[in-house]
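Question: Send over one sample?
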Amino acid sequence: MIKLIVGLGNVGAEYKDTRHNAGFWFVDELTDKFNITLTHDKKFHGDVGRGTVFGSDVRFIKPSTLMNRSGMAVAPFAKFYGIQPHEILIAHDELDISAGNLRLKKGGGHGGHNGLKDIVPHTTADFWRLRVGIGRPTHSSMVSSWVLSKPTQDDRTNIDKAIVCGIEALELLMTNQEQKAISLANGFKL
């Protein structure tokens, strides 16, 4: 069912450990678990790889564009390999969910997320999303600095635990147990 897993984030040492890179962290954890190597591919504007995940052949991409240009990498990659939107899982950070919580869903709007906002016009919105909670700052004027800053140690620990649950949900999704996958991810609470 899932043939492409996308992790959204920003490249560069200054962004590596920032909240906006939760999608990258998910892909990193997953590729480490399955011993899959990602290599940079200029043609597709990202780090790409391929391997067997829970018994299925899966491709990966972590766009090397800035977050708000993610569609420039994801859409051509999916098109080149003939991957349909409903066969894509995009992991990304989510402000409206507490750090350490998850949401898994198929389809829907971009919800203001700049990476999704750039991907949707190039594909359709019919892809799977693993929304990794990073929490929200106390004031809306602080959103940019919040997503581009490092989480507290406690928040990072909670996010990492949620990512492990996200991988468990992915296994269910990959074995055609969509409702169980959604229930597991959406019910995960620390």
In short: The first helix runs from residue 22 to 33. The first strand starts at residue 4 and ends at 7.
